[in-house]
Amino acid sequence: MRQQDWSTVRALPLFRDMSEENFAALMNAAFLQRFPAHVSLIAEGDLPDFLHIVVEGSVELFARHDGQETTLDIVRPVTTFILAAVIRDEVYLKSARTLSPAQILMVPARTVREVFGRDAAFARAMVNELADRYRGFVRALKNEKLRTSTERLANWILQEDRHQGGTRTIALDIDKRKLASRLGMTPENLSRNLAQLAAHGVRSSGRGIEIKDVAALADFAKPNTLLDG
Amino acid sequence: MRQQDWSTVRALPLFRDMSEENFAALMNAAFLQRFPAHVSLIAEGDLPDFLHIVVEGSVELFARHDGQETTLDIVRPVTTFILAAVIRDEVYLKSARTLSPAQILMVPARTVREVFGRDAAFARAMVNELADRYRGFVRALKNEKLRTSTERLANWILQEDRHQGGTRTIALDIDKRKLASRLGMTPENLSRNLAQLAAHGVRSSGRGIEIKDVAALADFAKPNTLLDG
DNA sequence: CGTGGGGTTGATACAGTTCAAGATACGTGG
DNA sequence: CCACGTATCTTGAACTGTATCAACCCCACG
After folding, report:
1. A144 in contact with B, Cβ within 8 Å
2. Would an 8 Å CB–CB cutoff place B137 in contact with chain A?
């Protein structure tokens, strides 16, 4: 990877505090790869070769079992993924594929583990990162166990609106079937749930979702920072 | 905490490799507390005061939302819990209560963060611990999203049998209602699911579960290391 | 144009919950 | 040690949430 491209990665909390030397060691071993859309990046069950960092585009993390498939997360720039597998040198629990054309920075897993062993600041940053991700999954599990699919959708809309700047107009950048899978429901069910939310201040048309009445939606969704982050 | 009680804690992967001095700093600030059964230890939403380590007895981690409650994990000796909240100094996402009389080692959160900042071996051990827990929650979420409740029960039986030594005779040490909640179902449903598993080599009576035909059970359960750990 | 994939809608089936009633186990106090 | 009261567990019936199957619509794209 060329040195002028390092800055955005260097700015990540995970790399911000480590020594210049060790950061260079990581980056010199790394390479930036372009992928087309809908390409498999990693497969669950394989041993980790690289720590992946999404620099551009979006990546789906998903898992399969017994003919079923579910989306676990959708990762956008600039974020690392499959950090836990790399650190423990154990098989991936998730598969990953590109959803759009993407640029992925790939750092050899061996190098990550080496630098991790000798750079205390990097190790500390890793703890923070992992603790944060851990909490994300705790929230996801609570969300799944304590809410109905309609409630999950309602809260996703509120949250996504916040991420997109609170304009009360959400533009979907992924297929609805993917969204359905991420929210733990079938595409048919997402359709019906969206229709149902019309009674709670939500208007939807094609790839756009509009919140007509935030209060009504929030009243139905019962948002909770201990579940939604 | 008295020095002769340190050894079991010192043997944990989390503390094994740190300096004698820093370990002593943690332990000198810590104290061992006895609790009766069914007592609240921490409440979700509170800020962490202590890192908890179960030394004896069992502890339930659970969460509430909108009148519902679900068990997220049941922790047995010797294990830390709520590590992520302590490290990030953010509110607990889970509540905890004792299920039996218990001894809990409580290390002040401030001390943990201090030692974490100056002991690289401790920081590295923490990464490993967190990565491991993280993967546990990934598995839990996959389990929840990709399996029916009966399948979750079947796999729990297989797994619990392994933990109890593979004798094909499982002794429940918690209420069935707790088990139901941990497996993401109602007590009524657990009853019915157990009855259903009779057709797949499982016999249950009171607090005992017997596997009469492992092959038949496994055939139904479709165990998968990427979901069951 | 036609063709195909995503999206919606409807009908039906299944999984899981809820409510209610009985059965069983369990600790307590007599 | 037994009798009682209480909580847990089981079973049944009705209901809700969600999935499945199928038809149809719609738009994008060759």
Report:
1. yes
2. yes
Nucleotide nearest to A178 (CA to C1'): C6
Question: Per residue in A166-189, pLDDT tens?
Answer: 999 999 999 999 999 999 999 999
CATH number at residue A100: 2.60.120.10
- The range of the structural domain enclosing residue B222 comes to 147-228
A169 and A99 belong to one structural domain? no
Residues A115-150: tens digit of each pLDDT: 999 999 999 999 999 999 999 999 999 999 999 999
Residues of A in contact with B83 (CB under 8 A): 131
Regarding whether B162 and B137 lie in a shared domain, the answer is: no
Residues 44-73 of A with CB under 8 A from B: 44-45, 63-66, 68, 70, 72
Cα dihedral B208, B212, B218, B223, rounded to 10, equals: 20
At which of A144, A176, A199 does a domain end?
A144
Partner residues linked to B69 by β-bridges = B64
The percentage of chain B sitting over the pLDDT mark of 70, rounded to a whole number, equals 99
Show residues of chain A in contact with B65, CB under 8 Å: 142, 146-147, 222, 224, 226-227
pLDDT digit string, tens, across residues B29-81 = 999 999 999 999 999 999 999 999 999 999 999 999 999 999 999 999 999 99
A90/chain B closest Cα distance in angstroms: 10
Number of domains in chain A: 2
Please state whether beta strands B50-56 and B102-108 pair in parallel, antiparallel, or not at all (unpaired).
antiparallel
Q: B110 and B155 share a domain?
A: no
Give the whole-angstrom CA distance, residue B117 versus residue B123: 7
Same domain, A138 and A90: yes
Same domain, B130 and B176: no
Q: Judge if A71 and A177 occupy the same domain.
A: no
- The whole model's pTM is what? 0.95
CB contact under 8 A, B87 and A226: no
Same domain, B126 and B155: no
Q: Which two tokens stand for residue A183?
A: 């929210």
pLDDT in tens, A8-24: 899 999 999 999 999 99
Structure tokens at A36: 């087309």
CA angle A98, A104, A153 (to 5 degrees): 45
Distances B208 to B10, B93, B172, B178, B205 between C-alpha atoms, Å: 35, 33, 6, 15, 5
pLDDT at A42 over 70: yes
